[in-house]
Amino acid sequence: MGMKSKLIIAMFWMLTLAFGSSPASADAGAVYTLNNSSAGNSVLMYNRFANGQLSLGGTFATGGLGSGAGLGSQGALTLDASNRFLFAVNAGSNSITVFQVTYSGLNFIETTGSAGQNPISLTSFGNLLYVLNAGGGVGGVDTLAGFTVDSHGHLTNFSKNIALSASAVGPAQVSFNPEGNLLVVTEKGTNNIDIFSLNEGGTVGSMKVIASAAETPFGFAFSKRDYLIVSDAVGGAEGAGTMSSYHLRAEGTIHTITGSSPDNQGAPCWVAITPDSRFAYTTNTASGTISSYIVGFSGKLQLLNAAAADLGSTSGPIDLAMGNDSRFIYVLATGTGVIRGYSITASSGSLTPLNTMTGLPVSAVGLAVR
């Protein structure tokens, strides 16, 4: 063997030792959740590897307080589109926290007031951040508030006290539509879906209140072509849960596509859709399962598997999120204090269990994946 060949082999082994030879060893991102502790709120970070497996990455204090109990919402944590900033609610201290995302962890930027009471859900688009304050559940008023986010992650409040359909509606989630010109809010207590149009600069213009196709609209996500997929908890009754789909038009009107497609489970609440828009999933908190649906080209929903994953009747699965590659989905189950990952079969949408991270508090809320 010549000297050149020996040098090439030596360099190969040095690179292998330094970086690892298996794709499983490559850092592919992270999964984040909130401990939501009333004694001091923190983000729990789990390293996510190329094969979808997780390992504990660190704990990062928000500088605020959690509620110490579930929030009944989707979106307590959210990442901006570039995965540069992570935003978190502090429901117990009426504030929100911004972190800079790094490969090694999170850098605290600031904690600022949420311009309302009991913040439970966040949504980001461009340099805008909106927060849903569920003040009606703590003796105040349910409102929205808007913030701008500068290039360093600092927040400036430009709008507050934006009313929902009533002062106490049991709101569950706020989110921008894919184009960023509309805001959507689900109201569990009134069975309404609120659509807010946005003016240039991000301030709220008109508001439309739409009756939901089924009871207790909760979590939602957008598929391609502006289809809005919403879970219907139907009061949490066992076996009564459904999913509904709507076409959200640019002017803020809604056309119902699938009025309510039963999943025959209890309390479907959180929703995630694969980035290719082929499959939608919802966690059934009362049944301890995840249901899967096929999302048709026209937005029509078809139940694929009522129990695509079974975590156990006492598991209490809540938040659900996935990465941008459509390959893996993660669920936070506070009844058993775990985050569990699943790989998604691209052709069928079926779920295969990955490893499970244990030891999470029952107060944990929110799930974000990069």
Set down the secondary structure blueprint:
Layout: H1 3-19, E1 27-34, E2 42-49, E3 54-61, E4 77-79, E5 85-90, E6 95-101, E7 106-113, E8 119-125, E9 128-134, E10 142-149, E11 155-163, E12 171-176, E13 182-187, E14 192-198, E15 204-211, E16 217-222, E17 227-232, E18 242-248, E19 254-262, E20 268-273, E21 279-284, E22 289-295, E23 301-310, E24 317-322, E25 328-333, E26 338-344, E27 351-357, E28 365-369
Antiparallel strand pairs: 1-2, 1-28, 2-3, 4-5, 5-6, 6-7, 8-9, 9-10, 10-11, 12-13, 13-14, 14-15, 16-17, 17-18, 18-19, 20-21, 21-22, 22-23, 24-25, 25-26, 26-27
Provide key terms for this protein.
Methylamine Dehydrogenase, Chain H; mainly beta; globular; single chain; four-stranded antiparallel beta sheet
Write a concise synopsis of the structure shown.
It contains one helix and 28 strands.
What can you see in these coordinates?
The strands form 7 sheets. The protein has a 4-stranded antiparallel sheet, with no helix packed on it. The protein has a 4-stranded antiparallel sheet with strand order 4-5-6-7, with no helix packed on it. The chain has a domain at 219-370: Methylamine Dehydrogenase, Chain H, CATH 2.130.10. The protein is mainly beta. The chain is 5% helix and 52% strand. Mean pLDDT is 92; it is low at 3-26.
